[in-house]
Amino acid sequence: MRPEKSPLLALRLCSALGVAAASAEEVGTDQAQALAPIMVTAPLQRSEVPLVDPVNEMSGEDLRTHVTGTIGTTIQNQMGVNSASFGPGVGQPVLRGQTGPRVRVMQDATGASDASYLSPDHRVTVEPLLADKIEVMRGPATLMYSGNAIGGAVNVIDNRVPSMLPKDLLNGVFEQRYDTALDETTTLMKLDAGKDILAVHFDGYYRDSADVLIPGRPIDVEAAEAEGIVAPGEAIFNPIGYIPNTQTRSYGGTAGFSLIGDKGFAGFAVNYMENDYGIPGAAHSHAGHGHGDEEGHDVDGADEHAADEHAHEEELALVLPLDRVNIKQRSTRYDFKSEWYDPAEFAELLKLRMTYTDYYHVELENQLAGTVFTNQGWEGRAELKHKPLGPMQGMVGFQGISSVFEAVGEEAVVPKSDIQNFGAFVVENIEADIFSYQAGARVEHQTILPINQHGASHTPVSFSGSAAWNANEANRVALALSRAQRAPQVQELYSDGFHAATRSYEIGDPRLSEETTYNLELSYRLNTEPVRANLNVFQNWAADYIYAQRSGQLFDAGSEAFVNTCPEADTCVPVFQFSQADATFIGYEADVGIPLADTTWGAMDLLLFSDYVRGQFSHAGDVPRQPPLRFGFQLDYHKDEWSANWRVMRAEAQDRPGQGETPTPGYVLMNITVEYKISASPYAEVLLFAKGNNLLDQEIRNSTSYLRNIAPEPGIGGAIGLRATF
């Protein structure tokens, strides 16, 4: 049954805040909405140097109205960005067809130190709801953050460690929203305050949702059988109108402070969060019955209301016992942040970051603890931006990561491992009249020492170069070339075991070598008063590309043996083997913004957009789980305090799903957003917003998701909310 909502959201929020009675203010949230430049935060914060790299930014009202419970779904409408969903509790970002260990997700330039890179069912512990700005970066600048960021990097910027004194003594934000498709309630509060040299920050949030509502049934039985997710004749619970076991609950809070002076600042923050979410698709019975009509559901009754299905769930569970897998995460993160202006005669800026994260998550099978994952990790980075040397300006830096990762339990697919990674990098920019140049290099060394096994050591070397021609104030053409290497991760090297959440048996290969990618990219920018346009065309050549592919075998849990055919209907799972092969990725991202009208009745603009990526192995065959071709339009309307947009996107069928995978059909996604601002006083403003999502009630099966045949995306739904700033 769908859980009832708690009426005591305010008390839960206060618990997350902990010390919320202290004064605080949100610095830079609304003020930052007026800042238009798109820029990489790390080396270029104090001076705007034109960038060659593609950088997308979400901030202000755009971020507020599109933010969701996961980082992947929050940014999935950006050019070249998709989300690898695993139910509503998980949404890992996909950049140009790359995800997992190839996309680095950061909290203010340092990593999350969680277990999201290990498996697609693990949530990234970066909370987008607390973000002031989200940057999506691709190209040479990603070398500053990690050699693993071959696909790109996502940097979530918040004010947990204040970097400047607030304008007023006290400011804050309160936000409340509700989403019908997930029956989701979200409450958020931020407070910031400052005086003299002291600035403080507090925030807290609470989010709770029930099972996701969808059109039709969650499991595409024919496709699931073809992939081996569901065995022929296996009993499954496949209701109409919702996805079982997709409830989520999340809460957390932060307290931070900084000492700020004319020469810089230094500050500290502590953040705690908990996530509890269900894994869809694990609700298979072991009763030995068939599927489909034998479940007791009328196939012709597709218009049956979802509530009726929920009413029968407990009764059906008595006949067909359900295996439910839930994941509970806990993360405590400590942040130290400091910036010093003009620290030496030759230096303009010194930035220091240090984080320690204590991460824990447990996979519960029918409320019994199965596998426990822990990760205690340190990460530090230092960046020194030097003063101009002739036409050259840039920065050098050092980064160190140290963690102890451990999995304990029956499904401990990865051994306890001591992981060390140290890297040095440099990025330089040259301005020469109408031309801009950027060059970067990074060398790092990674060592993984698993218990009772031989360790692995790799030394990736990456470098990049780019040039831009500023033909005039409106037109800019850029060409970028990069060579990036990444070391294989612990799960790719040492996995060996059954994983209940993904219903698969995973096998690593300790002989894997570095993955090397050569990227060539051509971009064009048009920025005139009436029209703006962006075009990125890229091709990546990946040598020794690491991937997990279905081996064709099955693992029989009954006999604990690998078999070609399953002796019983419900005891086998597919086997995934990590291996390497050369691959090529080619694609583009494009958008054009055109003003349609600007009258006393309001202004209207049209945005046309499209993106595409295709991944192929050199030995023939397609890279699995790639996003489809997408294109569409968005109409934006503005009139005084009113604004609205209508967005229609067409995603084509993905008929090149990769070996052992199944194709996904195309769909049309239509969303509408309406906003209204109320100036409550000279010191306060209220933003009211309403959204209609998937208004055509399309059945959307995400080609980048492992669970596309088990858990489609939410159906038609609406969201309402308010955001008060003071």
State mean pLDDT (0 to 100 scale).
84
- The first-level CATH class is given as Mainly Beta
Q: Characterize the overall form.
A: globular
CATH topology: Maltoporin, Chain A
Q: Which regions are unreliable across 5 or more consecutive residues at pLDDT < 50?
A: 1-52, 283-321
Tally of distinct domains: 1
Give the DSSP E fraction (strand runs of 2 or more residues): over 45%
Distance between the termini: 40 Å
Alpha-carbon Rg, integer: 25 Å
> Which CATH-level-2 architecture?
Beta Barrel
Please name the defining characteristics of this protein.
single chain; 726 residues; mainly beta; Maltoporin, Chain A; 22-stranded antiparallel beta barrel; five-stranded mixed β-sheet; 7 helices; 33 strands; 7% helix; 52% strand; disordered N terminus
Structural account:
This protein is mainly β and 726 residues long. It is built from 7 helices and 33 strands. The chain has a 22-stranded antiparallel β-barrel. The chain is globular, with a radius of gyration of 25 Å. The relative contact order is 0.12. Residues 1-52 and 283-321 have low confidence and may be disordered.
